[in-house]
Amino acid sequence: MTTAPRQLRLAAFFTPPGSHYAGWRMPDARSADMEIDDYVAMAQLAERGKLDMLFFQDSAAVASAAVNRTDDPEVQTGAARVVRIEPLTLLASLAMVTKHLGLVATATTTYNEPYHIARRFASVDAISRGRAGWNLVTSQFEDEAFNFGADHHMEHGLRYERAAEFFEVVAGLWRSWDPDAILRDKDSGRYFDPAGMHVLRHEGRFFKVRGPLNVAASPQGRPIVAQAGTSGPGRDLAARIADLTFTAQTEIPAARAHREEMRERARGHGRSPDAIKVMPGLNFIVAETESEARAQHEHLMSMMVDRIVLPTLARLTGGVDLTQYPLDGPLPPLPQSNSAHGRQDMLVAMAREKNLSIRQLARHFATANGHQVFVGTPKAMAEMMETWLMERAADGFMLLQPWFPTPLENFVKLVVPELQKRGVFRREYEGTTLRENLGLPMPE
Amino acid sequence: MTTAPRQLRLAAFFTPPGSHYAGWRMPDARSADMEIDDYVAMAQLAERGKLDMLFFQDSAAVASAAVNRTDDPEVQTGAARVVRIEPLTLLASLAMVTKHLGLVATATTTYNEPYHIARRFASVDAISRGRAGWNLVTSQFEDEAFNFGADHHMEHGLRYERAAEFFEVVAGLWRSWDPDAILRDKDSGRYFDPAGMHVLRHEGRFFKVRGPLNVAASPQGRPIVAQAGTSGPGRDLAARIADLTFTAQTEIPAARAHREEMRERARGHGRSPDAIKVMPGLNFIVAETESEARAQHEHLMSMMVDRIVLPTLARLTGGVDLTQYPLDGPLPPLPQSNSAHGRQDMLVAMAREKNLSIRQLARHFATANGHQVFVGTPKAMAEMMETWLMERAADGFMLLQPWFPTPLENFVKLVVPELQKRGVFRREYEGTTLRENLGLPMPE
């Protein structure tokens, strides 16, 4: 048996209206928050590029900075990301205008019920004939709590305990029906075979769910599960349950160590290390020439207003108000936040290792939320991606679109052919389901 | 000013795999539970017929009869309706393959969070450019409780209190953004106008929700709201909040009195009586000739097995096991059920007024769940519908499809032209939103 060359897994990631806080102000930027035609164009573009999937971030809230800072209209109105089409609903629409593309949406385990989530992803999976994926998160930030009856965000450790049980229920509900259980036998009048129905009867700390799910078996066994937690509990959950993990890594040695750790953890949970794909985020601006890419990047950075980007750090400081400190001075010591632990650790490490000021950190996080930033030519980008793949620092990348559509257009037009030429990316989709295209095994 | 002739409002209603318990066994019946192509065909057929909307029933559970009666495989496997695509997810798909058709899905207020529901319907409304509708229900039956942490169904009165507050929150969230509040002004960097953002800050008995909703204003003011409650609290809620009410009426005098009562109740809540459309359910089999229609009906009835249809009554008896009584004898006295009050009252009234046996009642409810049943020619059906309209017994009908596709196909091909000829149904859609097509006013 010959080993196929290693192949990149690629996701077009999108946070409406773009990953870069000022991206929406680029001259060519489309609104891509409420306009279905923009999302259709994005999905069809990603599919033309043979990408594995389109992947939507989500939050079930408008950020408190936008809601509360009415004393500072510039802060308030500069914060984009206030409206969007709910991404799981959106997937069902995009399934109708694509044939091969995987469709992944974020949904929180903290402010949802597992029966609803199992049902909705299973439904998108049926509509798309096996192309759905769930990015399982624990609600990083407190904003969502206020929309679901709580005064405070659930404690970090408890969120992960809930997430683990939430997943157990969802996965159990997805096993409700054997693939051949729905008979619809007109002659005998038998609609289903009771032997193929599995009633969950789950009773745990957080949930009590009888089941079965009222959706038939998934065309791909079950929807793909992604997880992006970078804290200890986050990594452990990902290693145990995730088909792919969305991680933030900026250097090859650390990324390689992280990937090996995740594979080792998966092994520890009795899984094949190849059953988990490690995909770092990659914020990118790519253009035909280096100077053109640089110009776009400079233009973006020139539109960053410190007073607007500073709030992007506020949710990672554990309550410390950074505006009380000199902007060009160092990050003060921070207490452990109840928000995203992993992201806070990254902020602190970055400040220390690279000796960055508060202003520099704020601008970095507003650009890429801690992820790697690439600015350059298609050849350089393909080279870099291939190197990460060959160095075993990544199984692929989450392509963070700073705005839509030019970055993704350029990637599909210029970088994809370069990757194909190098033999590290597909020329045609291999299968009909997302699981098949990712080369992942069926769940037992 | 001349008064336009009265026009019928028509919805194609669907409970997968059909309203009649044996409908799925008809030779031409398609599965229409998990197959997206069947739903696409249904939506496009309804739109060809210029129908106002497609309207999906829902339940977030497999019925307990199917789950628990493993001792009786015939009862268990004869109960269809075990799997389906979740209807609100489905609407987002159907929005992509239709242009004018209204898209309405049922979602319960008993086992949901208002922020999620407001967001999802607003998202379908954005995707469809103003064609979404919500059928607000209170979970008639206990089955759903078991999937959401409860051992028993919430008490009837409490369900309606919760529903009223749930709606208040959803409606408030739908007012979060003025239509012109999202500026996306690239030059100034202002993404939104704080003056056009309305933060709900709701605190009530059941819910605490800060808001605002993270979805922009609806193209039709807000999604259309339907309500089907027939108990006292149900009627009052509908009269207060619903754009249309789905009712069960089988005779013109009672239907006229009911419609007048609903209009009067609406007036009592300070609304125009024309702002609520009263639409009785209509189970129908229509064919070119009377004998053909009769033959289809006879074939359907021949496939009814008493042991299978009896459980359809079980949820309306308040715990009394009807199998203990002679099937051809009368209905025994029943205690008040915690399920659908209105439906139980209808059952009892029907038994008394028409002197029906338990077997006859079971067969009637398994056919049409208490709704009017029409079997006949296109001309007779159009005549009947026109009479109900002119007699002010209805503003239109919920067309209950006993199976798919022949009944709806025949309706569109044979009955719609007949109604158009009589001047009581549109030849072209009047507007672009569901609200416009229904001739309903914008909400304040």
UniProtKB/TrEMBL annotation, chains A, B:
| One Pfam family recorded for the sequence | Bac_luciferase
Q: Which UniProt keywords apply?
A: Flavoprotein, FMN, Monooxygenase, Oxidoreductase
Task: Describe the location of the Luciferase-like domain by residue ranges.
Answer: 31-387
Q: Which family does it belong to?
A: Belongs to the NtaA/SnaA/DszA monooxygenase family.
Protein name according to UniProt: LLM class flavin-dependent oxidoreductase
Species of provenance: Neoroseomonas terrae
